[in-house]
Design brief:
Blueprint: E1 12-15, H1 18-28, E2 31-37, E3 52-58, E4 64-69, E5 85-89, H2 93-103, E6 106-113, E7 119-124, E8 130-134
Length: 139
């Protein structure tokens, strides 16, 4: 079996409230990485001061996701609200499940064992993006 270290694919999701999304992801277990906010003299695409131009949330077991504020006029990298769908491989999804329950996350798929050998679940964030956590790491 081949062991891979996948670190060169970073999904990006835009949010109306990227700060809240980062806080939510941190509560699920992501580590806070870089966060670049726009300043008063640096407002591309209609982004207001203090909004997130670029940020990274790092999963402790490997991988990361970029989180940024949805552009007001420049939507080059904006995803429509609720269009994101991210799968996070984790050794112990039960721990993340407890965190998700504590956050009151909307459950899309309850914790289950699948016929392809994964143990995991899916939830939605406050803006409707789907986050799945499970043990399946591919073959």
């Amino acid at each position: 079996m081949t062991t891979r270290t996948d670190h060169n694919l970073w999904p990006g999701i835009s949010y109306d409230d990227a700060h809240a999304a980062r806080t939510w992801l941190a509560a699920l277990g992501f580590d806070e990485g870089i966060c670049v906010e726009s300043s008063a003299g640096d407002q591309p695409g209609g982004i207001q001061p203090g909004e997130i131009q670029h940020s990274e949330m790092l999963w402790p077991e490997g991988g990361r996701v970029m989180v940024h504020t949805r552009g007001k006029t420049d939507d080059t990298f904006a995803t429509p609200p609720g269009a994101g769908n991210v799968y996070v491989v984790c050794d112990d999804p039960d721990v993340v499940w407890v965190r998700a329950e504590a956050l009151g996350a909307r459950v899309l798929r309850p914790m289950e064992d699948t016929d392809y050998g994964s143990h995991g679940f899916s939830i939605a964030d406050a803006e409707g993006n789907s986050w799945s956590f499970g043990t399946y790491a591919g073959d």
